[in-house]
Amino acid sequence: MTQEIRLTSLAHGGGCGCKLSPGVLAEILATLPAAAPVSRLMVGAETSDDAAVWRLNDEQALVATTDFFMPVVDDPYTFGRIAAANALSDIYAMGGSPIFALAICGMPVSVLPVATIRAVLEGGASICAEAGIPVAGGHSIDSQEPIYGLVALGLVHPDRLLRNRTGRPGDVLILTKALGVGIYSAALKQGRLNDACYEAMIASTTQLNTFGRDLGLNPFVHAMTDVTGFGLAGHALEMARGAGLTAQISADPPLLPGVGELVRAGVRTGASGRNWASYRADITAPDSLEPWRIDLLCDPQTSGGLLIAADPAGADALIASARACGLSQTAVVGRLLPGPAHLIVQA
Q: Which domains can be identified in the chain, with CATH numbers?
């Protein structure tokens, strides 16, 4: 792209974690009248799950999701790759396999050269190619700020569907990617992100969550979601609310390289503060917990890892399998316990 144009400078709202508070969209959608019979609707907006699911027949259910955002990096090709990986993650988080995608593209056509817009689309298409699916169409508009993402469609066997609400008491919570993408993004905008951390950010955000695709076949896996805009704390709380259980997570989760130093130096996103304000009433944390640890647990992730609720008996094998698939920092970060829908942060 031309040096005169910075994509992130056009993205006034920021590209990481700009979502409604957990449950807000679901509450709005739940009040809208149903437009058609929903007997085949297996998953809707009731528990803020990752995608909608519609039963096609006894062997297949359609998984449908959409996600898009403004740039988190200046390189247009890389931005496209990150946005596409982020959108496809919701299919994998339901235990599904993507089948094709549609592009969502809003660009300030009077500002950005056609070559830059093409590079964004090419980046997204390259990730879809890695997933083995085509970008079969889409829609574009002239917008004031650059926006890109996908509508992603997939298939799953109805009996192998994984939801965020089906965790069981005693399950361990396993996270497949380290945290810190939001911190990286904030540091990048402040000119405080070194080359090594930038490369780590790109590697994490463009790594597909294909590991989730076959977990519906694993008898030890009971529930799954992916960690994105609401941070680890927010998505663990969603799992707790859906299952009617108490979730407990560690205040010391795996971090991407250099993230601890950045957050202790005061780098944070505005979204982490908004996340904390939106769900802090349902969280118990030690009074002695350093504020920067709260920032990390609420840090919004773009194309974050899978959060898996699994029987402890199968946890070691599951972690080993994830690491063998390239998810090297996969680790247990918490557990589900009997009790009210609540989240406990354990120092």
A: 7-160 (3.30.1330.10), 172-346 (3.90.650.10)
